[in-house]
Design goal:
Length: about 280
């Protein structure tokens, strides 16, 4: 039997009628649970089956072929399926939606979009509601994911936060018509900076950041309109686009001052994405 202490030979008594069953290991089991758990953890962190096989042999003296490692790793699949089908809480205060691109192991390594929804319940508890993988980010996948969340019991959301993916606000209105929508101000700022001259970026960033640092929605609107006036001559196309999404920029000011820092951007979910990438 392969164990974390190396291979151990186990003598199994045999009786004439074949009725003996020992309780130390299940029948025909050749690997300890600890080693199998180690393989699953390494696989979930993106280590290849061949690398896992080499590591286990060097560390524990137990030989596994890449195919054996792959078969053991498949034990995760029922748990993953159960996770995607689990019943959800009926109410979340806030749900963050974001997609990040990761190199995923298929026949080759390809960068694919991992869609993630993280929610905060009324009691402050955070939960990864669901995730899915697709070749790229598009609103059809988000729509299907939102509908799936609702069918599994999530009936009420106070506030959604997301970036500017086309069609998101419409998809949310269809699935959760009573929910409010806050566009991520960090994504908005990045998009602005990508469209302006390098020499102006620092000034624009510093001025735009002031929008979420005000004490009231009225003050924030005044700062935003001042921003329009300041940069409209140089970047009329940028300001025009900003005015079109203005109703989604200051929604977070409708909530208590104590939580605004957490709901003006999707930074919380991006921190989670960075952990996944590591």
């Amino acid at each position: 039997v392969d164990t974390q202490f190396g291979p151990i030979e186990v003598q199994v008594p045999r009786d004439r009628n074949g009725q003996f069953h020992q309780h130390t290991l299940p029948d025909y089991k050749q690997h300890s649970d600890i080693l199998e758990s180690m393989i699953i953890k390494l696989y979930s962190k993106g280590v290849t089956t061949r690398e896992i096989a080499d590591l286990i042999e060097k560390m524990y003296g137990s030989h596994y072929s890449p195919a054996q490692v792959s078969n053991i790793s498949k034990q995760m699949l029922p748990k993953v399926e159960a996770y995607h089908k689990r019943k959800l809480s009926d109410k979340f205060f806030c749900v963050y939606l974001d997609a990040t691109y990761l190199p995923l192991r298929r026949e080759t390594f390809e960068r694919e979009a991992v869609y993630i929804a993280i929610g905060i319940k009324p009691n402050g508890h955070k939960e990864v509601i669901d995730y899915c993988i697709a070749p790229s980010e598009n609103i059809e996948v988000w729509t299907e994911m939102l509908q799936n969340m609702k069918s599994r019991g999530l009936k009420q959301v106070e506030l959604f936060l997301s970036d500017g993916v086309v069609g998101m606000k419409t998809a949310l209105a269809r699935t959760y018509p009573k929910a409010h929508f806050q566009r991520c101000l960090v994504h908005v700022m990045r998009n602005i900076c990508a469209k302006v001259r390098v020499d102006d970026r620092e000034k624009i960033m510093n001025e735009f950041k002031q929008i979420h640092q005000q004490t009231s929605k009225k003050e924030a609107a005044a700062v935003l309109h001042k921003f329009y006036a300041r940069w409209n001559k140089a970047y009329s196309h940028v300001i025009k686009g900003l005015k079109e999404i203005e109703p989604d920029l200051l929604v977070f000011y409708n909530y208590p001052k104590q939580i605004r820092a957490s709901i003006y951007s999707t930074n919380m979910i991006e921190s989670f994405n960075n952990v996944i990438k590591r």
